[in-house]
Specification:
Blueprint: H1 5-14, H2 25-53, H3 59-86, E1 89-91, E2 94-95, H4 103-107, H5 129-148, H6 157-179, H7 184-188, H8 196-214, H9 219-223, H10 230-249, H11 257-285, H12 290-304, H13 313-323, H14 326-337, H15 339-342, H16 350-368, H17 371-378, H18 394-425, H19 432-437, H20 439-443, H21 465-479
Antiparallel strand pairs: 1-2
Helix pairs in contact: 2-3, 2-5, 2-10, 3-5, 3-6, 5-8, 6-8, 6-18, 8-16, 8-18, 10-11, 10-12, 11-12, 11-13, 12-13, 12-16, 13-16, 14-16, 16-18
């Protein structure tokens, strides 16, 4: 952003070559692959997971919420939101809005704006800005989709369509700039390797807050909300797990030794957390739960994210034990026994799997961040260290806590304001009749050609009386 690397790139293009002297083909290839792996976590990963883990009558609506958010975020990102997250400073916590569409800009060498302050000047990736925009855009998109998990089964789809660009603009960009784009938390030294705070704490807190303002699902859905396809849900979960190698592996902006460690730590922590969650299910409930195993996988992936390339492999196991137990306790014990939490209908428990696990991971990173690994990640001699390595490492824990509290506070306020403003224009929650019908009322479409629990036949939409009787007979046979 302030040098002539983009002009050099154009000159090389004009001379019939696309390899400027600063380009590292390996780094560029890995960054584009990592970005696409993150994209696959959303589409089809979370589209499949959401469409399968909900009650049959909400399968289409839940999948579409994820699909719409993915598309809408991409357009908003390149039009104004990327530079609000990684552009020049407007406020200590916010960048200046602007398009990321110009060829000269996109073909220039990627750079983090913090380098213009003289902070971590070596954070200058060896690939073009287009790769950076794409990678960070996939992070923004999945954050929005994770947030949606709190609102499945009742939010007015038109309200959701308004909520996505507003929340991206006034909430996500603030966290991203503050912690990654050269904002005050970045300059202060808060560590968030690949989004434990920017993505997971923000989506978990914002989802829980929005769930309060939107209101709960229908009483019938809250009482009984069985997944419509557990095996397909596992397919979505598998895409999410393996895609996380790009999620964390691309966080170092290079195909280097730290990215390899981040990928390994990610999978170690996820596996440990899944096993820990399953063990607690067996001890407490007497049998293992497949959905519980997926939740344990998720909390492990979330917990390791802020420290994936900053902690040693043994620490990843410790983090997996913690992420498979503490979020389990808040979800299975605290939530079920504390009435104020029960009053808020967080459909998929995003508060526990993302906000709790993300904050836990950020704080534990302050304990276990190894000074040699932070040096590799940040590219400067300055050694940031976790508390277990002494040398004032306890200060890092305090910084991690403050950083997490800022993300929590900003999302509580900004999400509340956005929901209130949208509510003045359009109802946030579907009508009771729409809640009774589900997908057919919201989209005029259904996931399966079956009649089942929780559905209402609408004779104004479907066939004549004879066909209606035939359809009902077929449906009854299939249900039996």
């Amino acid at each position: 952003m302030g040098d002539n690397s983009s002009l050099v790139s154009i000159a090389y293009m004009n001379n019939s070559t696309s390899v400027p002297p600063w380009l590292n083909k390996g780094d560029n290839a890995w960054q584009m692959i990592a970005a696409t792996l993150v994209g696959l976590q959303s589409v089809p990963g979370l589209v499949i997971l959401y469409g399968s883990i909900v009650k049959k009558k909400w399968a289409v609506n839940s999948a579409f919420m994820a699909l719409y958010a993915f598309a809408a975020v991409i357009i908003c990102w390149v039009t104004w939101a990327y530079k609000m997250s990684f552009g020049y400073e407007l406020l200590p916590f916010w960048g200046r809005a602007g398009p990321a569409l110009d060829q000269t800009f996109l073909l220039g060498r990627a750079k983090i704006p913090a380098s213009k302050h003289g902070i971590y000047p070596m954070i200058e990736p060896f690939y073009p800005m287009a790769s950076m925009v794409w990678y960070q855009g996939m992070f923004a998109a999945i954050t929005m989709i994770l947030l949606a998990g709190s609102l499945l089964g009742r939010i007015n789809i038109r309200a959701w369509m308004m909520f996505v660009p507003l929340w991206l603009t006034f909430s996500y960009t603030v966290s991203a700039f503050s912690l990654w784009g050269g904002g005050f938390l970045f300059r202060w030294g808060v560590l968030d390797y690949s989004g434990g705070y920017v993505i997971h704490v923000s989506s978990g807190i914002a989802g829980f807050t929005a769930a309060y303002w939107v209101g709960p699902r229908s009483n019938k859905d809250r009482e009984r909300f069985p997944p419509n396809n557990i095996l397909l849900m596992l397919a979505g979960a598998g895409l999410l797990w393996l895609g996380w190698s790009g999620f964390n592996g691309g966080g170092t902006f290079s195909a280097n030794v730290d990215s390899s460690l981040a990928v390994l730590n990610t999978n170690i922590c996820a596996a440990t957390s899944l096993l820990m969650w399953t063990l607690l299910d067996v001890i407490y409930f007497g049998k293992p739960s497949v959905i519980g195993a997926v939740q344990g996988m998720m909390t492990g992936l979330v917990c390791i994210t802020p420290g994936a390339g900053l902690v040693q492999a043994w620490a990843a196991i410790v983090m997996g034990i913690l992420s498979g137990s503490l979020p389990w306790f808040t979800m299975m014990i605290v939530h079920k026994q504390w009435k104020p939490m029960q009053a808020i209908d967080d459909t998929l428990g995003v508060f526990h799997t993302h906000a709790v696990a993300g904050l836990l991971g950020g704080i534990v990173t302050g304990l276990f961040a190894h000074p040699d690994l932070t040096k590799v990640f940040l590219g400067v001699p300055e050694n940031k260290r976790g508390a277990v390595y002494g040398g004032g490492g306890g200060v890092q824990v305090a910084k991690q806590i403050v950083g997490g509290l800022f993300v929590i506070g900003w999302n509580l306020v900004s999400t509340s304001i956005i929901c209130v403003l949208i509510g003045l224009i359009i109802p946030l929650r579907m009508s009771e009749e729409e809640l009774l019908i589900g997908d057919d009322a919201a989209h005029g479409e259904e996931a399966y050609a079956l009649w089942g629990d929780g559905e209402k036949y609408d004779s104004t939409i479907h066939a004549d009386d004879n066909n209606m009787q035939n359809t009902r007979s077929i449906g009854a046979t299939q249900v039996v």
